[in-house]
Write a structure and sequence with these properties.
ATP-binding (chains A, B, C), homotrimer, alpha/beta, about 15% strand, transferase (chains A, B, C), UDP-N-acetylmuramoyl-L-alanine:D-glutamate ligase, nucleotide-binding (chains A, B, C), Hyethyz_kinase (chains A, B, C)
Chain lengths: ~260, ~260, ~260
């Protein structure tokens, strides 16, 4: 991928309305991340309106982090509408292996054929049905461990699958790349993974999902690198990260992206 | 208005207990904004206690951003008690035009006669029944477009109506002023509009709603100007903004307020 | 207590999975605080999975700040499992005296015998059945006022009770200490008390509850002191505070802790 910057440029030009049904921990961070990146976020979760709203958004993200039954209903309704209207939607299967309730919901959402699935290695392994030892929402497994599961999941569901960690892995079942951008402080700040899912949705609005996902991950990791250099700990990392998301332009992304074929 | 600082001074002196039924995205920011300003925030939304708590607070703010039916019930119950007890309450009709569910709830809350209504132009137009094209929670319309709707809404409901944007517009149906304070970065930080609604409620506790609203908007915009000057992007804007809310005193507000008759 | 640093060291070494059922305002801050401190937070509240998850966590924190009936059920179910499996659990009775709904829930949770109870003076007084005038979630009473109530509550429930304020007071009904660490800006930042409850839970995982609580409070207050020195207001205090939680090591805690027998 020679020019990931074009996907950032197009996202900013269209400023897509991204509908997010996400968890309580991530909601504020995700809205700020999407605003800083140049998209237009909306958090709408009530069963009474989620499906209607999914029909007017340009992309949808679904995250099961703090899910409960009414939210799960809204997720399924919104994802169904997104599928019917060809609105790209991204699934973030937070801690999907942790409880029986999550495993069942994960399977139902998978059946609704997400455009992109983004998770850590434990989550992708759990979603792929492999044995995993997910601990909380942290990745207990290395990205490499989940590469085969990611390829299988992508082929099975016709989805792009992104496994994020120290080095990210993205596959559509045929092609695969690794993205080496990022900073060691990112796992010490909550909701950065969840918020990335929203950015992937914003990039996927009207753009090819595989390339859009790769570009989104490189952009996000590059912002992390800048924030790491500009901060002194997990607290000052956060404002620096939002500033970097806002400041990085397509040329800077092309210069800083570290993408290679897997 | 020669002396908006007096409204800030009185608010800080009484440190009003402000009851907020607001959205998940804004809750933390709003609490921090109110604490930095000098008020005492409480977030209480359960149907089992919202009405009881509204009776002991000095002001109430109601925001429909991430509303669902149990929350809507609590909003209506709390607003009813506020009306009965002459506790000022402020309505923030987030994205009220976006779905049928929101339009119906907006109409029900309007019928409970809020003391102040604060929204962006799209929301005020939608609430006034005019045709609008609200996109997410961003303002798709300019403030000027909504001035007539704001005047009509104020006369109809006996409320002070504040339309916020690059230049804010406040009317009670008879009088009207514009407030030019603010910073271009504010729309790139989530929940700043929602949190302003809480500040308006705090200023309106025991003070004349029209003047209190104008003073609150000037104070908030001035803090935005200081934060803009002290930050490098939407991330560093946020801590600088809270610092500015905390640091601005009545004399500084009087010196920096840009209020004129409309 | 000569060596509070050993409790920090052990907490970091085990990086306990802390299950938090907390309020919407605090959730993000608490997750970041726990990550910065070195623990592994998870926010899980649905009735469908809270009890199951409580059985795999190393500690549980329960906070009633924005409670509603389904959350209350999950709190009781999770606390019951924690009691059965000897998982330490910490109760944060936010504004427990404010409404009848809260008083009833507080009594039910107390009957499930929390390992530690952490609140401000108003909350401890209310929980102990004494007359109190809690205002929002702020402490309307001084810590000293609640010392006898704290001792009584500790003896009655077999719990460690921590009353936090300008100078904290911790008792197990027999022993008692005061911790003088902290900064005057802390009450002006929302959710710092709630997040402290999570840190107490993390320290209590596999460690003696009384000593763990004392060490957690000294550590937290010391981070506040560093943040106060490094910031200019309540906004810049927050990132500085997370940086300090991350930076303080056991030796620094031992050097800076201000603990004395009460």
């Amino acid at each position: 991928m020679e020019d990931p910057g074009q996907y950032l440029a197009m996202m900013r030009q269209t400023a897509p309305l991204v509908h997010n049904i996400t968890n309580y921990v991530a909601m504020n961070v995700m809205a700020n991340v999407l605003l800083a990146a140049g998209a237009s976020p909306a958090m709408i979760h009530a069963r009474e309106e989620a499906a209607e709203f999914a029909g007017i958004a340009q992309a949808l993200s679904v995250n099961i982090g703090t899910v409960s039954p009414p939210w799960a209903e809204a997720m399924e309704a919104a994802a169904t509408v997104a599928g019917e209207k060809d609105v790209p939607w991204v699934l973030d299967p937070v801690a999907v292996g942790a409880t029986g309730y999550r495993r069942a919901l994960g399977a139902r959402l998978l059946a609704l054929r997400p455009t992109v699935i983004r998770g850590n290695a434990s989550e992708i392994l759990a979603l792929a049905g492999a044995v995993s030892a997910g601990k909380g929402v942290d990745a207990g497994e290395s990205v490499e461990t989940a590469e085969n599961a990611a390829r299988a999941l992508a082929r099975h569901g016709g989805a792009v699958v992104a496994v994020t960690g120290a080095v990210d892995f993205v596959t559509d079942g045929t092609r695969a790349v690794r993205i080496a951008n990022g900073d060691a402080m990112m796992p010490r700040v909550t909701a950065l993974g969840c918020s990335l899912t929203g950015v992937v949705a914003a990039f996927a609005a009207g753009q090819s999902p595989f390339e859009a996902t790769v570009a989104a991950l490189a952009y996000y990791g590059l912002a992390g690198e800048r924030a790491g250099a500009a901060s002194e700990g997990p607290g000052t990392f956060q404002p620096a990260f939002l500033d970097a998301l806002h400041a990085i332009d397509p040329a800077a992304l092309n210069a800083g992206a570290r993408i290679e074929l897997a």
